[in-house]
Amino acid sequence: MTTTPVRAPEGLVNFRDLGGPRAPAANVRPGTLCRSAGPAGLTDAGRAALRDDFALVVDLRSERETANTPAVHPATVRMPLLDGAVGALTDVPTLNRVYARLLDGAGRTFARLARLVAETRDGAVLVHCTAGKDRTGLAVALLLDAVGVDRDAVVADYALSETHLGGAWADGVLSSVRAMGVEITPRVEALVTRSPAHVMEETFERLDERYGGATTYLTAHGLDARTLARLRDRLLAVG
């Protein structure tokens, strides 16, 4: 099984391999699970590296977001979550509300993702949405929590996105949102560019209170015990 960390394909924003000693989740096996923003900025070299270095890509963007976007990896599974279009919102939600909506409505999708990761026996899996922050952030948090990764490490990984998405990326996205006629209020800016640690901490509190934790949540939505054990074996480093 792969034990070498995967390098970021050129042009892929908000990328990280979730395993290895330099990762927040140091007990996760490197080269198994990675996360990122969408592939829009990939260079030709980045597309080639993506095809070479990953066994599977899971795209969480909505059908609206991918309507004119061809898959950049031959083994791409599209699992749409939410709409992701801020311009369509009349009442801009908080991040907590977005994550609560995902938890309450997308359990089977998250369980399917866990199954795909567990069953990809050789090679890395990349999970992404558009920013790689919210849908990807919650999906990865559920997987890591379900296999027993320390929650402080999961929260730290979630919070990294805010740093990775700053500067030119944030400026460009906010400019696009503004061009859609949306006023850039503090709530809109937070929704688009922020990933504060307390939001994931509060999401874990909701997960525990409402569903009994990630393991119970995923099994209640169709993940069987055998597949959960395979997920642990795949993601967790030995020793």
Walkthrough of the structure:
This protein has 239 residues and is an alpha/beta fold. It has a single domain, classed as Protein tyrosine phosphatase superfamily (Protein-Tyrosine Phosphatase, Chain A, Alpha-Beta Complex), CATH 3.90.190.10. It has 11 helices and 5 strands; from the N terminus they run E-E-H-E-H-E-H-H-E-H-H-H-H-H-H-H. The protein has helices spanning 44-53, 63-66, 95-105, 107-119, 135-146, 151-164, 168-179, 186-193, 197-211, 214-220, 225-235, and strands at 16-17, 33-36, 54-59, 76-78, 124-128. Strand 3 (54-59), helix 2 and strand 4 (76-78) form a beta-alpha-beta unit. Helix 4 (107-119) packs across helix 10 (214-220), helix 4 crosses helix 11 and helix 6 (151-164) crosses helix 9.
